[in-house]
Every structure is written in structure tokens, then in C-alpha cells.
Design brief:
Blueprint: E1 4-9, H1 23-40, E2 50-61, E3 70-80, E4 84-93, E5 96-112, E6 117-118, H2 123-129
Antiparallel strand pairs: 1-3, 2-5, 3-4, 4-5, 5-6
Length: 130
């Protein structure tokens, strides 16, 4: 399946007291890539009726990233299940291609807000993802 890559400029305020990218910023980078990925498929990003929700997210910090620079967030769909999608995530710096700063994983679930339960992915969404 095709990689989804998003470039995000780092901001000075994204750093922590140690002059490294604050840990929460890695999760924000993953979030921004996920939302941009949703939008390319015209998936809803607000809870109305049915939508995709985040069921799991994790991050392994490999090396400290510092300002200035541009983060490159790469998402790859690893598995499409009945109601869930597993994605792997890699964060690099644009100026250092191939140097991994963080790796992550997310699980997305198609969800019915009215019924309060997961549903199978709609066929048109499944086809768009694959």
C-alpha cells in the first residue's frame, strides 16, 4: 500500500527545556498526518454519525529531534481488518533522509457514534485506502 508522507515545519516553541522536540509533539505530528490522510479520502474528522476514530497510538523515541527543521511523517497502512486499520509511522527530518527519529503505530476503527460500537469499514472507504 502507498506511503502517505507529510512535511511539517518545526517551531521553536515545540522544544522542551532540553532544547529537543517535546515528546508530546511527536504525537501531534502523527495526529496531523492522520488528519491529513483522512482528508485525502474525504473521511469525516468530527464525530457525526459514523466516522473513523483512533483506538490506539504508540511512539518509540529513537533519537532527539531539535529545531530548526522540517519533520517528515510517513504513514503506511499495514493491515485492513473488518473494522480496523493498522498503520506504522516513521518520523524523520527532511534534511536527514533515512535517519529515524521516532517510530509509531496507530489503530483506526470505523465507529458508529449513535450505537456506540465499531462497524465494518464502508466499501468505498476500504477501496480508497487500498
Amino acid at each position: 500500500m502507498k506511503d502517505f508522507i507529510l512535511e511539517v515545519p518545526l517551531r521553536w516553541g515545540d522544544m522542551d527545556a532540553m532544547a529537543h522536540l517535546n515528546n508530546v509533539m511527536y504525537f501531534r505530528l502523527m495526529e496531523e498526518a492522520r488528519i491529513q490522510w483522512f482528508q485525502q479520502f474525504d473521511l469525516p474528522t468530527l464525530p457525526t454519525g459514523e466516522a473513523c476514530i483512533l483506538a490506539h497510538v504508540s511512539c518509540d523515541f529513537v533519537r532527539a529531534m531539535a529545531y530548526p527543521g522540517v519533520a517528515m511523517v510517513r504513514q503506511v497502512v499495514e493491515r485492513i481488518g473488518r473494522s480496523s486499520v493498522d498503520m506504522s509511522i516513521t518520523i524523520e527530518k527532511k534534511s536527514e533522509p533515512g535517519v529515524t527519529y521516532a517510530t509509531g503505530r496507530s489503530v483506526l476503527v470505523w465507529y458508529d457514534y449513535t450505537a456506540g460500537k465499531s462497524l465494518p469499514w464502508p466499501e468505498k472507504v476500504r477501496q480508497a485506502i487500498t
